[in-house]
Amino acid sequence: MIVDSHCHLDRLDFDKLGLSLEEVLHNARQKQVEHFLCVSVTLEQFPAMLEKISRFDDVSASCGVHPLDQKDKLDIDKLRNLANNEKVVAIGETGLDYYYSKETHQVQQESFAGHIEVANQLQKPLIIHTRDAKSDTIDIMKAHNAQNCGGVLHCFTEDWPMAKQALDLGFYISISGIVTFKNARALQDVVKQIPMDRLLIETDSPYLAPVPHRGKTNQPAYVQDVAYFIADLKGVSYKELAQQTSNNFYSLFNLVNRQHGSTT
Ligand SMILES: [Zn+2]
Ligand SMILES: [Zn+2]
């Protein structure tokens, strides 16, 4: 069984897919996906997102503001209140994305720091998005004691030195379907070095469909393709990769009662 550690179930284009949310989850379960973490990108849309997934026991939620969606100052009280809900197992996604304009860097940094503060207060791990902002990401994590709440660098596409610094802070690294792309050689080399007990897998659906589904709307069922690819890359069986990444997920997000034994 596997877990999709990061998907945006409220952002799927159900008309284009010709499927309901129920059917999307069903298809994923048919592909051995047994748990889903539905990730929030704005506080405004969070209540509606929570409402959509609330009836599914195998779907957990995060609460936070994506760095590219952080238009003004973070409302830290609102984040704390919304995140203080038993369905919410993580804070984020937050982080830094410097790929686009420079103007938002300061707003992103303050928001990121605020998320870390709330994560430490509520003792829920962070989901960190980081792109083209390696040193600032690590600096802010250290300055605000992100190692106390822990978390994951999701959809990781940066280099090994950055992965190593995050691992040294006790963080996990989550890999999306980007690793299956032809031009992802550098990332594939990084994935080979990530210890098995710190690795998570995700789709980040509806974005970034893995090979062989490129160009289609991504969905949680495709996390199986990511799992097969990474198992091959790391020279382990699919079963071993599935079990280890699932157990990593449950232990990081304190869903330990769902962990599987190590029987093969
Ligand atoms: Zn992200
Ligand atoms: Zn995301």
Automatic annotation (TrEMBL):
Domain of life, source organism: Bacteria
Organism for this UniProt entry: Pseudoalteromonas peptidolytica F12-50-A1
Keywords on record: Hydrolase, Metal-binding
Name listed for the protein in its UniProt record: TatD DNase family protein
Annotated Gene Ontology cellular component terms: cytosol
GO molecular function, one term: DNA nuclease activity
Chain sites annotated for binding a divalent metal cation 2: H129, H154
Gene name, Swiss-Prot/TrEMBL: tatD
Family that this chain belongs to: Belongs to the metallo-dependent hydrolases superfamily. TatD-type hydrolase family.
InterPro entries in the record: DNase_TatD-rel_CS (IPR018228), Metal_Hydrolase (IPR032466), TatD-like (IPR001130), TatD/YcfH-like (IPR015991)
Binding residues annotated for a divalent metal cation 1, in chain numbering: H6, H8, E93, D204
Record flagged with keyword Heme: no
SUPFAM superfamilies (UniProt xref): Metallo-dependent hydrolases
